Amino acid sequence: MAMRKLLFLILVAMLLPGCKKNDTESTGNQPSAADQPLCDSLCLYAMGDYGSQFWRIPALLCLDDGSLLAVNDKRKYSYKDLPEDIDIVYRRSTDLGRTWSEPQTLIEGTGRKQGYGDPALVQCANGDVLCLFAGHNGYFASTAADPICVYLCRSTDRGQTWSDTVNLTSLIWDASSGYHGAFVASGNGLRLQKGPHAGRILFAAAVLRNSQNVSDNFVIYSDDNGLTWQRSQKAYTAGDEAKLMELADGTVLISVRRSGARGYNHSSDGGQTWGTQGTWPEMTVNACNGDMLRLDETTLLHSVPNSMQRERVSIFTSGDEGQSWHSPVLLCAGPSVYSSLTLLPDGTIGCYVEKGPDTGCELWFYRFNTAWLRSHQD
Fold it and tell me: Domain spanning 37-376 has what CATH number?
């Protein structure tokens, strides 16, 4: 009886003159779409799709025409890195990631020590898109006689077709350098926007020392849209995969994969020379590749597993130009590994994330906005 009375009162209230389903409709204060939390996701590659159980190593970039380019490894027979047989494939979207083209092969592996992996993307000032990646031998097995190689492919049509490879290995190290292998961290490179080096493109490389299986970080950079390259002074000692960001004053920040507190350093001359390295204790996480993104004039984002395990990829925020990081927001519950960030034309953020255990991996595209981030921050 009480329930019937309650339902009757609700019905009467809805029928009274002037009553609205949403009070904001009657006051003219309807929140805009940008004020409503948004976090959508779409699986681009599931285990078993297109002949592979192992989809790894995402790179995501929004181009100057608003299209999205998603590039990654297709590990055909194994979860393992090079020198396994790996293809690099890509998909494109022209509607903010709601729908995607069928996968296309950027470069095909043709057997053991004939595969390619770890793609990294940047768009040059002239509109060309560069994809740098590794190939041939494995990183820790690399020698001067049988090296892991760093290659470049170029697209002049916004990622629809790609050039033949250019081998960049010799500019990063040679037999006399004290190093014996190198690869560029997958995800995003960087194009500088400010100061005397505006237009310069940069990628962070991990370079393997001769006497120990320890990596140092260097930066390779080009001032002519990727036609010629130079190598920086050492950016970080005992680092690994690293990402670069331009700060508001033109300083270049490098964020370095480590086990425990993530590392950083700064360059005041466009990535050529570097200062004193340090660590962020508030970002004590698994040794994993992540990405950085400038959201606006005051805010940086960083995607990385918020765990000492490869799980819980989260979005960290910095409001002080990367001096500190706070308010990690969980994006992927459960096992999740590498990730890549990009800013979309409508102001939303795209994140391409690798999910899953060693028995197989999926790649997911997430699109979220700042309202969603704020609603989940402490």
Answer: 2.120.10.10
